[in-house]
Amino acid sequence: MKWQQIPLGSLQTNCYIVENPDRSCLIFDPGSEGKKLIHLLNQRKLKPCAIFLTHAHFDHIGAVTEVREAFQIPVYIHKQEEKWLADPALNGSQLFMVQNPIKVNDADHIIKNEGAMEINDFAFSVFHTPGHSPGSLSYYFEQEGFVISGDALFQGSVGRTDLPGGNNSQLIKSIHDKLLNLPEDTYVLSGHGPVTTIGDEMDSNPFLNGF
Question: What range(s) does the Metallo-beta-lactamase domain occupy (predicted)?
Answer without folding.
Answer: 12-192
